[in-house]
Specification:
Elements: E1 8-10, E2 14-22, E3 29-34, E4 37-41, H1 50-63, E5 70-74, E6 80-86, H2 90-98
Parallel strand pairs: 2-4
Antiparallel strand pairs: 1-2, 2-6, 3-4, 5-6
Length: about 100
């Protein structure tokens, strides 16, 4: 498991995760944790919300949750975002970050 979980914390609703989006990547997916954030690659450009939409889809697939369970708390227009993953325990976030 990740030694430093400073990018995520557990709440009664699920895990709150700091996410660093990497738009225009060659492939989509979770790329591990670094610099206090979970790095997530998306193929879309950050135009008209396309990258955020793909980010939600990518996280929903990675954590096997519905897209509606991925909730933006802050940073919708920034590369660094804070998201709530409803129903996802912190241990699962660390497991996916290390995969």
């Amino acid at each position: 498991m990740a030694e430093n979980a400073d990018f995520a914390r557990e709440t009664p609703e699920g895990a709150v995760v700091e996410v660093r989006a990497q738009p225009r990547s060659s492939r989509a997916g979770v790329a591990g944790a670094a610099a206090g954030a979970l790095r997530v690659r998306v193929r879309s450009a950050p135009v008209d919300g396309k990258a955020n939409k793909e980010l939600v889809e990518t996280l929903a697939d990675a954590f096997d949750i519905p897209k509606s369970a991925v909730v933006f708390l802050s940073g919708e227009t920034s590369k660094t975002k804070r998201l709530l993953l409803r129903g996802v325990p912190l241990a699962r976030v660390l497991e996916v970050a290390d995969a």
